[in-house]
Design a protein that fits this description.
mainly beta, two-stranded antiparallel ribbon, two-stranded antiparallel sheet, 31% strand
Amino acid sequence: MVSQGRAIGYIVSVGGFLGMGGRKVLVDPASVTVSYNANVSAGMP
């Protein structure tokens, strides 16, 4: 979500199984860490 040109939260889907029962929640951007590892194959942890 954006307010005055600034991200105030990310909407993410949590829970559920096979597309059923999931819920959308708002997450504070300060709680999110994004990282990139070039040594990990796609689809592998």
